[in-house]
Amino acid sequence: MGIYVNPGNEEFKRAANSKIYVDKTMLLAFTNQNLKSEHQNICVSRPRRFGKSMAANMLVAYYGKGDDSYELFEPFKFAKDPDFKKHLNQYNAIHLNMQQFLGRTESVEDMMELISRKVVRELKREFPQVTYYEEDLVSVLEEIYSQTRSYFVFVIDEWDCIFRVNPMDAQAQKKYLNFLRDLLKNQPYCVLAYMTGILPIKKYGEHSALNMFDEYSMTNQRELAEFTGFTEAEVQELCRQYDMPYDKTKQWYDGYDLKGVQIYNPRSVVMSMLGHDYDSYWTKTETYEALKKYIQMNQYGLKELTTRLIAGEHIPVNPDKFQNDMTTFASADDVLTLLIHLGYLTYDFYAQTVCIPNQEVQKEFINCIEDGGWEPVMAAIRQSEDLMEATLRGDEEYVAQQIQRVHEDNISILKYNDENSLACVLSLAYYAAKKTHEIYRELAGGKGFADLVFVPRKHVESPAMIVELKWDQSAQTALDQIREKKYDKTLKGYHGSMLLVGINYRKAEKTYTCRIETETINE
């Protein structure tokens, strides 16, 4: 048993013995199906703190010959799988954490040399009966396979660290990709290669050096969606065990929509359950600095897009042109796609849009714009509580004045006379309502789509609100439309007080008017 070759099951045992461990062992059923096949090369990219290393350690514990792992896996779901014993501890596992090697060397050449030297030393100790003719890693593995027919499973964690730590060194990146290609591609000794990282595989021109990999990223996790983080059912069970309100947990940590599978940030959920509180538990690593860097840019209209995201909008995006690094940007789509991979945005695969997933990430966005030219947006956010209170007490004049102020202050960011921008102004002006209400844009109900619908969160004593926006008509016309088209049908299952808010924008005068009325929805 070595450090890199068949290192045993201690790392996964540590995770399984933690205060909170959510069973993700059925991932092994997926990897077993792909052993020794055209799909044996798997690259899984997801944000920090989403369980990448835990999954890597689990694969090493299951496939590697370092330890007998039957008792370790026996309590978990996968132990009931018919192929559980078939592949248990049947292969030589090579586990490499690239971040550790990179941190110990001065260049990518030194890093690759260190990997080769360390792993070759352990391989020779593991296979003393083999005659070795060359000293490089690939040659040693080829000789071991040729003389013993031994198979290897490669588990590579933080595979993309070079692209994040040395983002500008294209030559080093190419050498590193070629190193991985030579090690893994079309090699008979390799029966499974499982790589994890934050970024998908780097593209160079039309082809990638690692084009043999099947990729599972935050834009399309495919069959691995349920293993990307905690599912709704898993979080509901944790909330029950730790006596935590599920709705608030959902508000803080849910929001990653992976083709219909709702995923929660696992690290944050665990910390929330153990601490019995709600806070942002993402460590401010280089990914946070990347968020701050890119949203402070105003290239490609990013300032307007970021404002719309903070206001709660869903922004169309094309992730297909992204070059899978942190430096090659040709459009706003590239920056937004990077933020998807870093976990700061979630991607709706079917609608091809992005949005901020939850309150935890929303908090990070606000932290990033507190200074540096975002004063009008921050002013709107700070004043939004006053606006909500004025709306609740029916102060129509103040509401109209405040919305007009938010609009005027953000002329430099938003297109002034654009209908979507007007709706964004409303969402921004009512930002504080996110704490107490679920807010929906263009929600279907009755005979059409209501512009803005505010539904009180559970255990919140506040009325529901339906807001309708008109352009060059009247606030009363907006109110009439809410009633005529029966937009109250959007509030399925709700009963109690409801505010109808009609807002009209006069384009010529650039002014707003408002009407507020109260109704009751009986149970």
UniProtKB/TrEMBL annotation:
Gene3D superfamilies linked: P-loop containing nucleotide triphosphate hydrolases (3.40.50.300)
InterPro entries named in the record: AAA-ATPase-like_dom, P-loop_NTPase, PDDEXK_9
A Pfam family assignment: PDDEXK_9
UniProt domain AAA-ATPase-like: residue ranges: 17-203
The protein's name in its UniProt record: Predicted AAA-ATPase
